[in-house]
Amino acid sequence: MQLKPNAYRLNETVKGVETMTRFALAVLALASGVYTYLGVRGILDGSASFVFFAAIIYSVAVSVAIYAFWSFMLRFVPLVTNGVQRIGLFITMAVGCAMIIAMSSWLNAAALAGSAATEQHMAVTLQGYAEDLDQAHSNALAAQSLLPDVQRAAERFSGLAADERESGALTGTTGSGSVVQLLTQMGTQMNQLAATITGSRDQVATQFEQGSARLATMRELVSTPGAIEPRADSFQTEAVQLSAIIASLQQTGVAASVKRASADLSAGFIAPVANGQSADLANRQDQVMETVRVSVAAQSAALTAAADEILATPAVEQRRFVPLSSAEAVIRYWQDFIPSWAGAISIDLLPVVLVLVLMIVNDAMRRESESLEEAENITAAEMLRAMNLYRRMEAAGIVPEPVRSEPPAVEPEAMPEPVEEPAAAQAVDDTTVTPIDAAQRKRTDGPRPA
């Protein structure tokens, strides 16, 4: 059997956890202040003493604000029963929560995940630099695809010159004449162009190795444990060196040089004068040299088109590493640190749960109190006031006297003499004895008639 009403038990329980509630609220406010101090210290600039005192003052202000705000909410929200007023308090609480997140939670997140967010920023930048180096290397090596065409053209001109010299395959007359000189000249130019393309390969490979070494150093800086500030500084230095290597790789590409050389083959074509002994031989030499000129023009157009296609490839944009503070890094890469954000916000907004619990418990106590009988719900003060009112009514004669039965008749001589009460017994406190009106009967009077 329940000895006490449920509303009374709920009320006693709420009083019992009140000290624990205050202690928990103070601990949460203190924890938020500590992490706010760590977050503020990472974004302030200046002397060490200035940063220390500024961070301390800000964190103390945040702790006091959080404790005061949630103390007000814990006190007032459970007591308000009107719907409109309760909605107003909820809106006020939502605005306060937004302000707490703005002044504290993001700094808490910076303290919890600031180093990891900065490492994330370095890792993302490193990935971008690696892609830029690969693209610049590919663009620099794109001209190597022209090398087979150039070598094939050089071999063809050299072979025609040898055939003309040995068997007269073009003019029908053996020997080293104007046609052989022209073909040899074209073969030599093609070989020089091939040597230019081949020579750039070694330079590109050397620069790519240097860039790969810089990338390896940057990867070590990202993954090495320790303080993030010196690692970020070293990372920035390596990033500058790597940017210079990428820019040099883009300048090493010989596609533009191949385009200019191939255009010179056609524009700068100079045919020698036919040196045949007879008019017929000279005529045949002129015809062959015209054919060579047309072939050189076609080869020049093909090489120019291939070089234009390589040059149309988008160049690598210059990338610059921008150092971020821990707070800025946490905000930029917030999607990667959702658990840290959840923990930082929970420290500040956990009292919302306490407010809702107290509100529900107080509503339950009010519902339980409405169902109680008046006798079970009366307080001690109300009981004292009711007793005092009853005494006044009785003194004024408003309350009727209870009906008494007549005592049996007694002979006058047999009645005992009245005994006087001691004075001490008659001196009774006025607060505990109801005064008797003068019109009432005296103690020595006989019994009232029925």
From TrEMBL:
Region annotated Disordered, chain positions: 401-450
Name under which the protein is recorded: DUF4407 domain-containing protein
Species in which this protein is naturally found: Devosia neptuniae
Basic and acidic residues bias locations: 439-450
Residues spanning the membrane: 20-38, 50-74, 86-107, 341-361
Compositionally biased residues, Low complexity: 406-434
Keywords (A to Z) from UniProt: Membrane, Transmembrane, Transmembrane helix
Domain of life: Bacteria
